# Entry
Amino acid sequence: MIIGLGTDIIEVPRIGEMIERHGELFLQRVFTEQEIRYCQQRKAALQHYAGRWAAKEAVMKTLGTGFTKGVGWTDIEVVSQNSGKPIIVLGGTTADVAKLQGIDEILITISHCRAYATATAIAVQRQPRTT
# Structure
């Protein structure tokens, strides 16, 4: 069952400007160590950072919380499987918020080019809850 849907689009140069302006402080506030390592190893690092930004925004939209209720950037992690498929791993208060809403998994798809990155997230419940 679908619990929530979210999508986001971001201009890649905007993320580049934020990194240039705020440096490591911005990266550590928004991305996990694993995400930073992943993006830095890519030829088009800015596109990958922007894709992960869009993914995190899309996930927040599935939760319906934005940045409120303790939902934080680094509590939403985009992990790439060996196949390249991205998956969402929630931690901290964000995982608690998702659990309270009956969300078992958040599916994600990310696309990017030189100018834009976009992501769509679908929050799903695998089995109906019994009360």
The chain has one domain: 2-124. The domain at 2-124 is CATH 3.90.470.20 (Ribosomal Protein L22; Chain A). The beta strands are 2-11, 76-80, 86-90, 105-112, 116-124.
